[in-house]
Amino acid sequence: MFEEYYREPEPAERKKILDACVPDDSDAERLEQMKRLFEIRYSVDKNGVWADSFVRSFLELRMIAEKTGSIFASRRNKKTGMAALESLCLNRLGEFGEDVLYRELCHTTAVYISACTRDKKYTSLIWGLGKISDKKTVGKIRYDMQKVGEDIPKLLHAEEECRILSRAVKDTEEKMLEDL
Length: 180
Description:
By secondary structure, this protein is mainly alpha-helical. The protein is built from nine helices and two strands. It has a two-stranded antiparallel sheet with strand order 1-2. A hairpin with a 5-residue loop joins strand 1 and strand 2 (about 50). Helix 4 packs across helix 7, helix 4 (about 55-65) crosses helix 8 and helix 8 packs antiparallel against helix 9. It is globular, with a radius of gyration of 17 Å.
């Protein structure tokens, strides 16, 4: 019933799918959790442009992972990283349930990977001259996934809090990159 929702990348379409769901008694609580998580994850501005706070937090974690060697930024990186983990609702497991949060984090990772494969700057050589091979693109994405799924939890000393994120990143990476 919810598979179409998790395959859809566009927030507006996801909202339509979520609103159209009529759950049976066993799925009612799950649907409510998904709706609350949707409201936390997405916002829309006055021009109708959607913002995805989960992808923003994912990108913040990726950027922090790149700056782990900086002595002067370590406190700021930890503070920003913990805020990003909170933004991903990893501290609200009791409210959402592990499966709902896991599926949403898998979707977030899939959106990130899809954006990377389509982005000309991400897949290009220096200064946008030429395109790197698909094999190198996959390697670059795997590097990003390792940074977010493995390095960030260690850096923040939050392995347990990041357990679901790490699993979602690993599972989505394996599933999506085997096709490339």
